[in-house]
Design a protein that fits this description.
two-stranded parallel ribbon; alpha/beta; 20% strand; ten-stranded mixed beta sheet
Length: 337
């Protein structure tokens, strides 16, 4: 069975070429064709012999996606629905956003999600499996090709829990970060987790330079457990301990995502709990105006409460900003992970 050539980092691809009795420098040529020249056919690799191209066609495929649907917001945000061509009819979403500093893509890491967060649109999508590293990378390549742009920032905040698919996510990042591939700096890549504590420690020990984002949403265990079942397994105390370890090991700031839901977690007492929880930490709070989902019980907080919440945190020395809403008219605005 043909393998997805985008599932291989350069060292692994060299090993594959050895198995084919081919020179390893040919793997570097193929890598350049895929990631620098952005071809989707071995026939286009004109500096390879016809025999080698035929051999590659017999052993590998490009894992190219088909666009099932593309929605374009009035603010320019694009939401893609891809058929990943895995023979099961599996579909995934990703979102392209434009900022003054360039293009950012929000990618999915799994088909469906196990986490069951009560405010998240992914909750209604049945979990099938984690995406392979090549399927994660293809989201970036597919969107770049369709929109004729170069993506400079990547956020793992789409469908799925990245740390539930840790190995494939990290391998995808190594390919994206590779100067021989897309050469996207690790500091331009953000990974959001609902709080799988062991993987936070693992990422800290590996000293990854990506930004760690924690989907927090409450500093109170009772409220957070109601919103996020994973809190029953890894309560806030364990989560914050892991985050402090991460900061100590990497000297990098942790970003805490906090979706504000009306009459739930958006009052002054909630802000006080959050300020006390994060006191003294190298942290940033990203306040998210929550978006209503089908059959969801949470609705967006008022603008007045959102601003008051931010201002209180800032007054206590906790850096807090309000996330800009993009793509809300095409259901691409962040509903958090």
């Amino acid at each position: 069975m043909a393998k997805n050539i985008k599932d291989f980092c350069i060292d692994e691809l060299k090993e594959e070429f050895k198995k084919l009795n081919e020179k390893t420098y040919r793997a570097e040529q193929v890598y350049e064709w895929i990631y620098k020249k952005k071809v989707n056919s071995f026939d286009d690799m004109t500096n390879l012999s016809i025999d080698l191209r035929n051999k590659l066609k017999e052993n590998f495929n490009f894992g190219t996606f088909n666009i099932v649907e593309k929605l374009v917001s009035t603010d320019g945000t694009k939401k893609y629905l891809f058929d990943i061509n895995d023979g099961r009819g599996s579909l995934i979403e990703c979102v392209l956003m434009q900022y003054h500093h360039g293009f950012t893509i929000c990618v999915s890491s799994e088909i469906g999600c196990k986490m069951g967060c009560k405010f998240c649109a992914s909750t209604g999508i049945k979990f099938e499996r984690g995406l392979t590293s090549g399927e994660i990378v293809e989201q970036i390549l597919g969107v770049e090709k369709d929109s004729n742009i170069t993506i400079s920032n990547i956020v793992f905040m789409g469908i799925g829990e990245p740390f539930d698919n840790y190995d494939n996510v990290m391998k995808a990042i190594s390919i994206l970060n590779d100067p021989k591939a897309l050469n996207i700096g690790a500091r331009h890549i953000s990974i959001s987790t609902s709080g799988i504590v062991p993987k936070i420690y693992q990422m800290a020990d590996e000293k990854m330079q990506c930004t760690l984002s924690i989907s927090l949403h409450s500093a109170n265990n009772k409220k957070r457990s109601e919103m996020m079942p994973i809190n029953n397994r890894y309560p806030i105390e364990e989560l914050i301990k892991a985050c402090k370890y991460y900061i100590e090991k990497t000297n990098k700031r942790v970003s805490f995502e906090y979706a504000l839901a009306k009459d739930n977690n958006d009052n002054l007492e909630d802000a006080k709990e959050l300020a006390n929880l994060l006191k003294g930490m190298l942290a940033h709070v990203n306040l998210i105006p929550i978006n209503k989902i089908d059959n969801g019980n949470y609705i967006k907080s008022t603008n007045e409460n959102i601003i008051k919440f931010r201002d209180y945190l800032n007054s206590k020395g906790i850096t807090a900003t309000i996330r800009r809403e993009l793509g809300s008219d095409i259901n691409a605005a962040c509903r958090t992970t």
